[in-house]
Amino acid sequence: MHTYSLTRRHLLSALGLGAGTAALAACTGPVSADQVVSGETSNLRSEMQQAALGEIPSQYSGRTNILFWAPWTGGLFEAVSELFTMFNDSQEDVYAAIESVGGYADLNTAFTAALQAKAVPDMVCFPEMQWLQFYFAGALTPLDPHFDNEWNTDIYLQNYVGEGMAGEETYVVPFARSNPLFYYNKTLFKDLGLPVDTQYTWSQLRELGGEISSVQQSGQDVKTFAYSGGDAWMASSWLWAFDGEWSDGFEVMPDEEPIRELMTFANEWVHVDGNAYMAQAAHTDFQTGLVAAVHGSTASMRGLTEAVDFELGAAFMPGEVNQPPLVPTGGSGFSLVRTESQERQDATAQL
């Protein structure tokens, strides 16, 4: 068995934090102070025209047409599309078109290219703080002038409101917010007499490994848990469970001991016990019964429920020292694009 010396640099690299910082800097365009839109800057940008719309249904002709680029596919896109249809059928002045551009990374790429081509949508929806690069590029306009008694920041969870503000103005309102959950094969747990519908700890799950691995699927011992290469978001909850924190203000890793305990735990679970592993497609392995538990977003619940042929269990993220632990928030929020048309901005705000 190999042993590994965990350094701060190795940890940041393993979790993608160092690389992510560099990537963020690389994907952010040149910024100057006068690009940022504020109450003292025009909310219009004459060179930014609307991107091409698809065919407009005849029943909606003659309206103000607005375009939303959605960073979703599958069930979530279908659900939001139904809301757009409801809006279009509820009034006769605005036609709101919705187009899927893929995922969040696809939207970032598409919107960056659209700004360069000066052919943009009227509304976008970026995750968490990703909107900031487009705020600094002057691509977004404040929402505050459109607020009224029915629609304003008071109607949202206040924890999310501040994440969408810059310079005391609102550029993002929350939508499709999420947090990580622990998903497990409830049928398997019940068959083995393991606890269900409870608050798990990481140590408890590790102890269950011997019983879970007694079951075979496709000629392999079933693993307890699958890590994946995209776990940086969930890793905040792991560390909080072990009573650690990534930062205190601008000080990175003020106490490294909980992080060492967390990474030692994961290393031994994978390389000593052999009941956890790094998966290429964790949710696929979960759906096919190769692993008993994974974690995922709250947004994963519908897809997993439809994909598995066993009873799906969902629980809070496992705790350890702290149980249940804190969890990070995710999801996205709507932003209004700075275009040449006041009419379309007003119509988009109506939506």
UniProtKB/TrEMBL annotation:
InterPro entries: Bact_solute-bd_prot1, SBP, TAT_signal. Pfam families: SBP_bac_1. Residues 1-25 form the signal peptide. Gene3D superfamilies: Periplasmic binding protein-like II. Residues 323-351 are annotated as: Disordered. Keywords: Signal. This is Extracellular solute-binding protein. The lineage of its organism: Bacteria, Bacillati, Actinomycetota, Actinomycetes, Micrococcales.
